[in-house]
TrEMBL record:
<dbReference type="InterPro" id="IPR001608">
    <property type="entry name" value="Ala_racemase_N"/>
</dbReference>
<dbReference type="InterPro" id="IPR029066">
    <property type="entry name" value="PLP-binding_barrel"/>
</dbReference>
<dbReference type="GO" id="GO:0030170">
    <property type="term" value="F:pyridoxal phosphate binding"/>
</dbReference>
<dbReference type="Pfam" id="PF00842">
    <property type="entry name" value="Ala_racemase_C"/>
</dbReference>
<keyword id="KW-0413">Isomerase</keyword>
<comment type="similarity">
    <text>Belongs to the alanine racemase family.</text>
</comment>
<feature type="domain" description="Alanine racemase C-terminal">
    <location>
        <begin position="240"/>
        <end position="363"/>
    </location>
</feature>
<dbReference type="Pfam" id="PF01168">
    <property type="entry name" value="Ala_racemase_N"/>
</dbReference>
<dbReference type="GO" id="GO:0008784">
    <property type="term" value="F:alanine racemase activity"/>
</dbReference>
<comment type="pathway">
    <text>Amino-acid biosynthesis; D-alanine biosynthesis; D-alanine from L-alanine: step 1/1.</text>
</comment>
<dbReference type="GO" id="GO:0030632">
    <property type="term" value="P:D-alanine biosynthetic process"/>
</dbReference>
<feature type="binding site">
    <location>
        <position position="136"/>
    </location>
    <ligand>
        <name>substrate</name>
    </ligand>
</feature>
<dbReference type="InterPro" id="IPR011079">
    <property type="entry name" value="Ala_racemase_C"/>
</dbReference>
<dbReference type="GO" id="GO:0005829">
    <property type="term" value="C:cytosol"/>
</dbReference>
<keyword id="KW-0663">Pyridoxal phosphate</keyword>
<dbReference type="InterPro" id="IPR009006">
    <property type="entry name" value="Ala_racemase/Decarboxylase_C"/>
</dbReference>
<feature type="active site" description="Proton acceptor; specific for D-alanine">
    <location>
        <position position="38"/>
    </location>
</feature>
Amino acid sequence: MSSLARATHARIDLDALRHNYRRIRALAPASRVLAMVKADAYGHGLLPVAHALSGLADALGVACVPEALALRAAGVGGRIVVMQGFKNADELAAVCAHALDVVIHAPEQLDCLASCRCGPPEGVAVWLKIDTGMHRIGFAPETVAEAVRRLGAMAAVNPRLRYLTHFACADDPASTMTARQIECFDATTRGFAGERSLCNSAALLTRPDAHADWVRPGIALYGASPIAGRPAAGIGLHPVMTLTAPLIAIHHHRAGETIGYGGTFTCPRPMRVGVVAIGYGDGYPRHAASGTPVSIGDRPGAIAGRVSMDMLAIDLGDADCRPGDPVTLWGDGVAADVVATHAQTISYELFCAAGPKAHRKYLSLCGIKK
């Protein structure tokens, strides 16, 4: 942690992480689990999370080759899948040298693979990405057969291909888009040998018919729900990150006084208002509205006024507190999904924005360590 690190603290409960993994495993017992640890493990810390999942997850998923190389440098073995694949010949050389799996989603990657002479003895492990409607990356269905043919002719490629797609609307169980994507994927891959992967966290919960050979949980691992209106606790998930910051001042305001930039919050009554040392400079969402929940000890509180760069104000209610006490922004007692709704965002963004800027401490049965 830099000497310029600010006052926020993120407690990362690795036992909760492992609990969530086992819960996911129970929901998809016939599938293997590709655990997503990209984006610094959604702000929770790439290396500690990867080590905590070692021996549990069947594979780890990262976004890019540098993330995979960081895992290998830290001694993480086993299958690592690079979801964006390689971007140039140098990255392909690193893929070969470190036995990484790669997602192939573009013709340019096929061209690069065709000229590869450095593949491992068993060949480069390829997951072929099919665009069934997300329209982000992947081969169009009508081009898949040719891509499979080309890969099968490459000496550097392991002949055992895997196939995957990504759902656009799995977080909306009422959408018909997911069913159409499943149908497209099944039709496109019919007749091809190889394992399949379709489900992210949301589809894992709502589409057991699509669990296939591999599921790819992300946000569910970290104790948040991917589906609006379906609380994580009701799914059996535990929060992994608890974000806190210290209370630095307490003021008493009269009814009618306003708080913060723009005077957007007017005290409806005489109020005790606390100032907390966290703001959007620390990754807390600027658009969190007045009323966004926090907790002080075992008492509820709520944001009052606009979030500033370094501070925010909260209604302390009748909480017994004093400057220096920690305020919980999300985690134990305050669901990140609820905070995200108040901020018109998603829990993914909360974790990725605030986690890397906080002092992270890791809690497990072995105790707390920095």
